[in-house]
Model the fold of this input.
Amino acid sequence: MCGATRGGPSLDGIDITKQAVIQGIVLRDDEPVSNAYVRLLDRTGEFTAEVPTSATGQFRFFAAPGTWTLRTLAPSTDSVDKTVVADLGLVADVAVSV
Amino acid sequence: MSRENVLVTADWVEENLDNPNIVLIEVDEDSEAYDKGHIRGAIKLDWRADLQDGVRHDFISQDRLSALLSAKGVSNDQTVVFYGGNNNWFAAYAFWYLRYYGHTDLRLLDGGRKKWELESRELTADIPDRPATTYVAKPADESIRAYRDDVVAAIGVQNLIDVRSPDEFAGRLLAPAHLPQEAGQIGGHVPTAGNVPWSKAANDDGTFKSDEQLAALYDEVGFDENKDTIAYCRIGERSSHTWFVLSQILDRKNVKNYDGSWREYGALRAVPVALGDEPGEA
Done:
C-alpha cells in the first residue's frame, strides 16, 4: 500500500489528532495543475514521499511534527521549493505557484 | 547484467510501440492512473489484486501466474517492459516478481510514468486487445527472496540495506508520508542495517543515477561485496527498486529482497530492533 493515490489519500475515517497533515494545491496562473508531482523532503533535504496532484491540483501528506520542504515538479518549468511546519492534530495548508 | 540489458528509455519505448515482441505492462497501486491514461498498448497488472494470494500473505502460485499471464496475452519469449508511478517502485516489484518466476527478458522504463508525463508524451485510455497465450511460469527462484528468519540470521553478518526514508529508519515515521501513519508495527529498523533510501538511487525525474553514483551510495554504508545482501523497506516494493539497482545494474551477487519487510519484521515478537539514525549493534 505504498502506492501514491493521486492528490493523496482521503481524510475520511482518519483520526487527525494522531496525524501531522500537510496538504495543498498547485497553481499556475491561479489555475490548478493536475499533472504535477509534489515531493516531501525532510529537514536534511532527503526525499520522504511523493504524490501526483489530483484532477483539482491537490496533494496531501501525513508527516511527523517538524519542518519539511515541499518540492513541486510540473511540466515545462523548474521545480519550486516551499518550507512548511507540521504538527500532530494540525492540517498545514499550502498553495504552490509554478 | 548491466543497465543496457535491463533499462530502456522513453524514446526506445516510443520507437517500439508496435513491436510484437515487446509487451508493456503498467504496475501501480493506484489503478485509476492506468484507467485514466497509459502508454499505448500497455496492459495493467495490479500488484495486489493480481499478484497476491488473497488469503495468505504470499504470492500467487506458479500455476496461477501462468494462467494470469496467459489470459493477459503475454508470451514467455516476449520482452516485458514494466513502468509505473511512484518512481517505478511497483514496476521494480513486478520485475523482481517475474524474475522470481523465471521470465527471461525483463526491462524497466527508466523514469517510469512520471518522466513520461513530465515530458508530455502520449497517453491513451484505450485498452489493448491481446489474444490469450499459453504462458508457463517457471518454478520460484528462492535465491532472490528473503524471509524473516533470513533477516534475523543476517544481523551483523550480511549486508542489510534499509531503503526507507531516514525518518522511517529512525522510527520517527511508521509509513511513507504519502500514507496515514499506522500503528500495526513498532518503529525502528533491523540492527546493523545501513540506511540507503531508495530515492538516493534516483534523479528527481525518476531515472536511475549513473553506475558510479550508485556504487558510491552503498560504499558509504560499508557495503561488502564479499557478503550476501538483503534489502528491505516497509512492504517490499521500494526495496525491489534497490534490489534492481544492486543486482541488475551494479551486478552485485546474491542480493535478496525481503518482501515481508518492516510491516512483518516490526510486528515480530522477540527479534532485535534498533531505534535512531545509527545502524546499531548486533
Notes: The first strand of chain B starts at residue 7 and ends at 8. Chain B has two domains: 3-140, 143-265.
